[in-house]
Inverse folding.
């Protein structure tokens, strides 16, 4: 057969079957072969019934249209670039849809070559997906904040927003992950930067992109809580009524406590706009 031919979905030669439910709707049975063992997750499911478990998985209904194309990629890794392109053309015409694809791929435990091809394809579509990608106010959908840190950082790198937008989106990610510290985010960004440099040492554009992300992550530690406080002020309609210096001074007076700093600013207890400058 041709390069794109595979045994995926065929009962012939299948070593096991997987039943897939979508919240109890549209249950499907998928025949799998040894090629599926490229996914450690699927391999673990293969013998789960031997230990009293089930070979049934329940997936997000939003993944219904592309979970099979994702599993097909396991069968023909040498054609991953072609399949990723087809996948995004057919199933991911917006950032939100592409985020759903990445969540499903993470769940199915696809390997590094898939994600390298996937994030390259995301980068090539950044302007097509959003006319505001270079705007300082660009904000990623909530689904981005639900990704594991490494993938969230790779998404941000692929989309390459402005430095201000990178900082504000990272602040939103931090706010959504209470167990994550600023230093952990910075270390994660450094790890991704090093891994990217090892994989593509001559890609100057990628290197510059990671430098921006690392600096944005570092800013979370250099100015603890300032971006989260800024978002809180914006939600309450107070943005523009206080200066950056007032925000910094209120945080310092509140020892970094965002809620206490917000109370100071909203009640007028914050120092005058020139206070932080006068002390330097």
């Amino acid at each position: 057969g041709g390069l794109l031919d595979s045994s995926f979905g065929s009962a012939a030669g299948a070593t096991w079957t997987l039943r897939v439910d979508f919240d109890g709707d549209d249950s499907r049975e998928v025949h799998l072969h040894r090629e599926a063992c490229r996914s450690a997750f699927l391999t673990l499911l293969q013998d789960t019934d031997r230990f009293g478990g089930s070979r049934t998985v329940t997936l997000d209904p939003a993944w219904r249209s592309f979970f099979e194309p994702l599993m097909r990629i396991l069968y023909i890794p040498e054609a991953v670039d072609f399949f990723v392109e087809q996948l995004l053309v057919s199933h991911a015409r917006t950032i939100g849809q592409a985020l759903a694809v990445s969540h499903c791929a993470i769940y199915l435990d696809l390997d590094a070559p898939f994600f390298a091809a996937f994030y390259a394809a995301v980068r090539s579509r950044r302007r097509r997906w959003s006319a505001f990608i270079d705007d300082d106010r660009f904000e990623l959908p909530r689904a981005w904040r639900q990704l594991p840190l490494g993938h969230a950082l790779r998404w941000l790198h692929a989309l390459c927003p402005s430095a201000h937008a990178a900082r504000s989106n990272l602040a939103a990610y931090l706010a959504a992950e209470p167990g994550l510290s600023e230093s952990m985010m910075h270390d994660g960004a450094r790890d991704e930067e090093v891994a990217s440099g090892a994989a593509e040492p001559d890609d100057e554009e990628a290197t510059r992109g990671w430098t921006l992300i690392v600096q944005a992550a570092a800013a979370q530690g250099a100015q603890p809580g300032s971006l989260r406080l800024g978002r809180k002020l914006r939600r309450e309609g107070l943005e523009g009524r206080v200066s950056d210096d007032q925000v910094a001074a209120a945080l310092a007076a509140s020892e970094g406590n965002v809620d206490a700093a917000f109370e100071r600013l909203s009640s007028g207890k914050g120092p005058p706009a020139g206070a932080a400058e006068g002390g330097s």
Notes: The two ends are 73 Å apart (CA to CA).
